[in-house]
Amino acid sequence: MTKLQKLNNLLFAVLAIVIIFSLSPEIYRMVSEWFKKEEVYRPLPNKEVIDLVKDNKFIQTISYNSGYWAWSENITIKDGSNKTKNSPYYIIPVAQTTLENEQNLPQTRGGFAVSEMKLRRNYGQNFNNILIYDVPKNHLKKLFDHRLVINNNFVQKYKDEYFLILQTENLSGQKSNDEEYYLYAFEKDVLTKLNVPKLSNVTFILEDDLPNPMILGRMDFDQNGEFDQHDPFHLFNWNIKDNIFTAFPDEAMTESLQKILDGRSLKKSEKAE
Questions:
Q1: Cβ–Cβ under 8 Å, residues 74 and 83
Q2: Residue 133 CB-density burial (10 A; 0-12 exposed, 13-18 middle, 19+ buried)
Q3: In whole angstroms, what separates CA 153 from the centre of its chain?
Q4: In sequence order, what DSSP letters do the residues of the chain get, joined into one string?
Q5: Which of 82, 176, 182, 243 could be 166's S-S partner, Cβ–Cβ 3.0 to 4.6 Å?
Q6: For the CA atoms of 63, 151, 146, 86, what is the dihedral angle to 10 degrees?
Q7: What are the backbone angles phi and psi of residue 115, rounded to the nearest 5°?
Q8: What Cα–Cα distance (Å) separates residue 145 from each residue in 8, 48, 83, 233, 249?
Q9: 202 or 126, which is more confident?
Q10: Phi, psi at residue 228, to the nearest 5°?
Q11: Which of these, 72, 71, 69, lies nearest to 90 by C-alpha position?
Q12: CA distance 254 to 264
């Protein structure tokens, strides 16, 4: 490589560095704006809405998502053909839009132009409430009377009964919020807050052939207040009627398995190998 080529490469590198540094504030602004937009897709934390209410302001407004039948079943009619029968219940997720600017309270929500709003509608997450529409009775019910975020919701059948399971979190504004779970029984029209142990990545296992439903979740094994990929998963039996979760297998079985894994159960001859 000639001296001229080396000089050109050096100048090019310097120019690239100058351009990167000159664009850094703009890149930072764009990234910040992106994360800011991500944040407003959720209901605002309690602290922020409290401050807004003090000033007689609001910045988010209700936005309904298209609903869906709680469940559908294929039935055979008299002529031998199959027909889809929908459940009596229609689920309507309630989301929110975030306005460009704060508005005064009270204000008619229906008068805003679409261009003034920012909206992201994700099925199954980022909702602030759920409506249950009992179609035969023409009755509409909201599930919650308090503020929260619904990150996931799904209908599950267990022993001929249908349930809506909701994974939520509070809006305290803390850095790490505990997940909270609710169970809605359609036929009984009862919403129950589940006493799920402190777990993450919870999976609900509802199999008719099992004596009880179970849940699988990641435990905070090192008790550092966070769940990460190094924390183990444990199973729990779920007594739906009494809202009780118990370790399954029990602690004695887990400790027995742990001794085998640790090598504490090895015989002297095996340890010497």
A1: yes
A2: middle
A3: 8
A4: --HHHHHHHHHHHHHHHHHHHHHHHHHHHHHHHHHHHHHHTSPPPHHHHHHHHHTTEEEEEEEEPP-EES-EEEEE-TTS-EEEEE-SEEEEEEEEEEEEEEEESS--GGG--GGGEE----TTSSBSEEEEEETTTTEEEES-SS--EEEEEEEEEETTEEEEEEEEE--S--SSPPEEEEEEETTTTEEEE----SEEEEEEE--TTSSS-EEEEEE-TT-SS---TTSPEEEEEEETTTTEEEESS-HHHHHHHHHHHHTTT--HHHHH-
A5: 182
A6: 70
A7: -65, -15
A8: 68, 19, 37, 33, 37
A9: 202
A10: -140, 180
A11: 69
A12: 14
CA–CA distance, 45 with 32 (Å, rounded to integer) = 18
pLDDT tens figures, 100-120? 888 887 655 555 444 444 443
pLDDT at 171: 85
Contacts by 113-121, CB closer than 8 A, 24 or more apart: 117/61, 118/37, 118/40, 118/41, 119/63, 119/95, 120/41, 121/63, 121/65, 121/95
Q: Are 239 and 248 in contact (CB under 8 A)?
A: no
Please answer whether residues 198 and 182 qualify as being in contact, where contact means their C-beta atoms are separated by less than 8 angstroms: no
Report pLDDT digits (tens) over 219-231.
998 888 888 888 9
